[in-house]
Amino acid sequence: MRTYxxxxxxxxxxSNYIHxxxxxxxxAIRIINVDALTYAGNLENLKDIEERDNYTFVKxxxxxxxxxxxxxxxxxxxRVVHFAAESHxxxxxxxxxxxxxxxxxxxxxxxxxxxxxxELPDGTFKADKKFLHVSTDxxxxxxxxxxxxxxxxxxxDPHSPYSASKASSDMLVKAYWDTYRFPMNITNCSNNYGPxxxxxxxxxxxxxxxxxGKKLPVYGDGKNVRDWLYVDDHAKAIDMVQENGRLGERYxxxxxxxxxxxxxINIILETLQEMLPDExxxxxxxxxxxxxxxxxxxxHDRRYAIAPDKIKExxxxxxxxxxxxxxxxxxxxxxxxxxxxxxxxxxDYQKYYEEMYKNK
Length: 360
Known about the structure:
This protein is of the alpha/beta class. The protein has helices spanning 12-25, 65-74, 89-94, 96-118, 161-180, 202-212, 231-244, 261-275, 309-315, 323-336, 338-346, 348-357, and strands spanning 2-7, 29-35, 55-59, 79-82, 130-136, 184-189, 191-193, 216-219, 225-230, 250-253, 258-260, 291-294. A seven-stranded parallel sheet has the order 3-2-1-4-5-6-10, sandwiched between helices. Strands 7-9-11 form a three-stranded mixed sheet. Strands 8-12 form a two-stranded parallel ribbon. The protein is globular. The two termini are 29 Å apart. GO terms for molecular function: dTDP-glucose 4,6-dehydratase activity. InterPro entries: dTDP_Gluc_deHydtase, NAD(P)-bd_dom, NAD(P)-bd_dom_sf.
């Protein structure tokens, strides 16, 4: 049975990845989920699989060398999928230090622990081991007018403390390949959306605010462009890179769903109007009059767009979910999980787990 160590598995993308892997492989794999349960980590995301015999949760911080090395010492880890990171750009502008500590130093701890566990006396590594570092398209900076796409060969040019910290962690992982031939891959993905996404992010924020008749904040002129990828497509790509990616390589994962932020908001409002029954009182609250333009974010990149040519050609992955379908799936999920949203926005989810783990 192959054992996966997933960091940040209680977060949005990490929890969706774990669900995907159990749907695909069932009892043929074992997953150890390591998460510090900071504000974006929520074990409610994994409630329906927490009793599985082949699933283990460990509350630990990736910066804690002793805790991470203990996990490797007590388990024969075959795959590391490293999601754990501070990821919200606005928070990085206010407090850059925690982003460097978690995203850079935490990644270094993970690399060293895996290297220590996998390295053989002759400096080579045990067979069939791999470390996959999950990163972002934001490390490439911003595309200007006339530019095409981000490719794996695009120079790294981060513009926010968040993207700078992720770029730094990417470079560390690459350096371990160049220096030690450490078995690794890096994936750089476009904006994800789907179930379990923390409501400070654009799509769940707009859904939640619109249903309550609250203002819908739009940075600047709303014409910043992002490439959107449904989270299940991302999970599939990560699995395929783990199994078939060439060691030492970086793979871009993009959705071919470029849209301006204001387009996203209008699509959400239109889709909510279509999906809400006429008798639902929230239907009257959903209105484009809620759109409110606010001061632009500092260092706000104008356009991101990923070219996933390499992963398509080498591995055969392609995005399966068009935005018009993915956004309906996402809205339907939020309709069916209103308690989850209430627990997150109220902070109750944190109180429950703080009590559970305070003496552990």
